[in-house]
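Extended Data, panel c. Modelled sequence:
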Amino acid sequence: MEPDAQVKKRMGHTAKPLVSIAVPLYNNERFISDTIESVLSQSMPDFELLIYDDASTDKSLEIARSYTDSRIRIITSDRNLGPEGNWNRAISEVRGKWVKLVCGDDIIYPECLEKQIDVFERPGNAGISLVSCQRTIIDPDGKTLIKKVNFIDGGRKEPSDLVRKMVRMGTNIIGEPVCGLYPSLLIGKTRGYSARIPYTIDLEFWAQLLRLGDMWMIDEPLCAFRISDTSWSSRIGEMRHEQFLAFMEDVSGVAQFRVNDLDLFIGRFNSAVQSMTSLMGFKLFAGSPVEKKEAVEQ
């Protein structure tokens, strides 16, 4: 849908949108229409949609360019930057007060932006650096596999409690990039996205934000994370456990999070279990991971 006249007036060349939605795009021709249309269907229409094509070799860019909504801006690259390079490029030119990164195969539900912004703007919610939400897991055809992933309940979460629980559980309890919304002003206070540990590129960024404030979890699925044989998560495959252990060691070195030896001991066991379960799920629902040399962005 096109923004109404009042929103259009606010979103002129000099006006800033309330939200910047950044979509790193790479070879997502099968899914990118669903992603774009889910953004354009938001109940809160005051946003810009920035699509960063990372030298796709399929019809992804052609499909993205077929949309004429005035809120869309498409940026291309003459070479493949990989996830780290393209994700950081995607948040480098945002103009909105709030930022959401949505990978080119994921979906946000119609009230996602409205409900996440509402949390930030409620009286008494100063000091929150990240609002996340529960998510639905879908397969390549959009069929629901898990209606609601719910590792933590709703409400405000203190960073050390949240990180320690995540370490102990051995898995991502905050959510993928599509789950989060954060203030654009905080980007300059972080190091950006780092793929030094590829599997936890999103968690490492969440951890940086958690050093700057609390998190609020909305206990409702407001987005869908898609698993498929083209997703980066599926291609990492059996390296998940090893890479989550590396992430655990990293956050244990941050005094603010207060991760202790018992947390790490419990987390090592649970991470192995979670990794085995996730790998079986990817193989069952999305096909076995296939080794490829090129970078694949979720």
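The chain has a mean pLDDT of 89. This feature is highlighted in the accompanying rendering.
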